[in-house]
Amino acid sequence: MHHVFVTGAAGFIGSNLVDRLLADGASVTGWDNLSTGQERFLEGAAKQPKFRLIRGDNLDLPALTAAMKGADFVFHLAANADIRDGWKHPEKDLQQNTIATFNVLEAMRVNGVKRIAFSSTGSVYGEALVTPDKPTPETDAFPIQTSLYGASKVAGESMISAYAEGGQIDEAYVFRFVSILGERYTHGHVFDFYQQLVAHPEHLRVLGNGKQRKSYLYVQDCLDAMLHVTRTSTARDAKHHTQVYNLGTPEYVHVNDSIGFICRTLGVKPKLEYTGGDRGWVGDNPFIFLDTKKIQSTGWKPKLTIEQGVIRTLKWLEGNRWVYEARRAGEVKVKVKVKGKVKVKVKGKGKGKGRREREGEGESGREFGMGR
Question: Are strands 354-359 and 341-346 parallel, antiparallel or unpaired?
Fold first, then answer.
């Protein structure tokens, strides 16, 4: 792992990964369209001679292929992770997750890159049927998919394993994450609850009934796991040259527990206003708890508990409130002309400003998200 190509490099997990790889002495090419990723997350990396950031979109296969030249390993993290609003723009998951993953695999094939790590999700299990009240193992049967996001990730996993079986990849690593917490976090319940409590500390709106059971993992623990198994090449001699790992903690909390961690840390006692029901939105899984015995058998164990991860995330958000404005300012608007030309305008100041055009995209406007 000498020259690593990271998609979604300016995102939450991607930027933390870039820092870790550079610290280990690797050369890193970061690839991101900066629609949701933040260049500010890469300020430290940008000072390193072994790092370069290329602004580009996974849907632009020629540019992606050219940018990947010289790489010997790909961490494919870029994706649309908006489960809640999936049905507002159903094509987004297909384009940004499934088609984008195919393009990454094709760029690898052209460049002779034989090793890939893919950020999948525990959402691929839908609502686990075999072990509905126990941790879900990697071998659990896939039930009916409950979200477009989960379905798009299943498709990505399947293509990766097919490329490996077809002799195009020597090592494939699929990581099924629970929700990740930590520094540079810009999406999820801690982000949303903190934003609400700053605006109105006396009350907090909670989607669902607060009894949903969720597992979370601190970002540095996540990276420790990914780097541990990729460095030891566990997929090289695996059947089909593919290893699938669940990444999470050996615990879960109720949403109400997480609210308690947040409110105690902030010193507030809001009135909780529940929207009702056992889930917050269509596609929300009321119980996410993954069996991590397989990854732990390699010698990895998480260092932080869920509570510690929530508090570290909250402390980072308190010191970096600029991310809320950056998310608003960096919204991407897509306008489609009758002839089929898409103009992607990125609103914002500084280096995040710019415009790209893609030819022949669909009939309705959509966003192109990258960073996780």
Answer: antiparallel
The rounded Cα 135 to chain-centroid distance in angstroms is 21
**Sign, Cα dihedral of 10, 370, 304, 318:** positive
From CA 334, how far away is CA 344, in angstroms rounded?
Answer: 5
Q: In degrees, to the nearest 5, what angle opens at C-alpha 286 toward C-alphas 283 and 292?
A: 105
* 239-284 pLDDT tens trace: 899 999 999 999 999 999 999 999 999 999 999 999 998 887 776 7
Taking each helix axis from N to C end, the angle separating 189-199 and 306-319, rounded to the nearest 10 degrees, works out to 50
Find the CATH number of the domain harbouring 58.
3.40.50.720
Residue 70 sits in the same domain as residue 14: yes
**Quick one: 229 and 348 in the same domain?**
no
User: What pTM did the predictor assign?
Assistant: 0.85
- DSSP structure string for 300-314: ---SS-HHHHHHHHH
Per-residue pLDDT band for 362 (boundaries 50, 70, 90) equals very low
Phi-psi region of 83 (alpha: psi -120 to 50; beta: other; left: phi over 0): alpha
Please write the tens of the pLDDT for every residue from 171-221: 999 999 999 999 999 989 999 999 999 999 999 999 999 999 999 999 999
Q: What is the DSSP letter of 124?
A: G
Note whether residue 241 is domain-resident.
yes
Task: Report how far residue 211's alpha carbon sits from residue 257's, in angstroms, rounded to the nearest whole number.
Answer: 9
Q: Are 252 and 286 in contact (CB under 8 A)?
A: no
Same-domain pairing of 296 and 331? no
Q: Are 212 and 254 contacting, i.e. CB atoms less than 8 angstroms apart? A: yes
Structural domain harbouring 332:
327-359
Tell me how far apart the alpha carbons of residues 45 and 307 are, in angstroms, rounded to a whole number: 29
| CA–CA separation, 97 and 274 (whole Å) | 32
Residue 261 lies in a domain: no
Say if 255 falls within a structural domain.
Answer: no
- 246 and 339 together in one domain: no
pLDDT of residue 330: 65
Helix (H, G, I), strand (E, B) or coil at 346: strand
CA distance 228 to 215: 21
Q: Decide: 163 and 105 in contact? Cβ < 8 Å.
A: yes
